[in-house]
């Protein structure tokens, strides 16, 4: 099995666990910003230790930072941080499974962003898949009907906005992270991935921590007080992000994100058997359309 496939499947599994933990933080003790910051703050030291440990074991030198690295990693980090906040806010509006599925518009958008930013072209079948996936997102974003509420208000709602915004921003972060990793010179894929991840996570922790200190006094203290869950959030975040970054170092972002749709299966199992949440007919149709579109993207990617 190619390393990028194994890394992607592992990353998707860990990401599902991390979102479940963040959901718990959001609905119990923390604000959207606090639950988002918990992910980054507790993962920074873990990423740093992983980087130092891998350097010592592999005997490699630290990769050299090439042209374009800092713009790529800063834009990628800010996009990922904002996207994570959108997903956390979404948990309060729709059930866990549908929230994650709406976020999956990131795969449909990553192919387009990758073409525009890195020149990594997509094929005709991928463009067809984008249309199918968009239809699925529209179906998913239509909540249960309410008397007197027009169709436009049911489709273009806050839940839909959070889901699509997170998808766009996660797509931006994936492409820009790949650009950052490719701009590093020297070292193997895991080492370059670890350095880019450490840089991005440190930037995210500092920026969001400053925001919380100014705009939400007390949230940083609350995050520290919830260390039992927050530390697990940081651990799963570090493991999942390392998987994504290694995959981005080896394969185009669009195909990595396409394979990452296996997360939907993990999420469905968690939602059905742990949270015992129910899914409506519209949600099933929307999910089926999105899965079909992403399967087509993956098929096209594996042919190349």
TrEMBL record:
SUPFAM superfamilies: Multidrug resistance efflux transporter EmrE. One of its GO terms (cellular component) is membrane. The keyword Transmembrane helix applies. Residues 162-298 form the EamA domain. It comes from the Bacteria. InterPro entries: EamA_dom (IPR000620), EmrE-like (IPR037185). Keywords: Membrane, Transmembrane, Transmembrane helix. The chain crosses the membrane at residues 36-57, 69-92, 112-140, 161-181, 193-214, 226-248, 254-275, 284-302. This is DMT family transporter. It comes from Gymnodinialimonas phycosphaerae. The lineage of its organism: Bacteria, Pseudomonadati, Pseudomonadota, Alphaproteobacteria, Rhodobacterales.
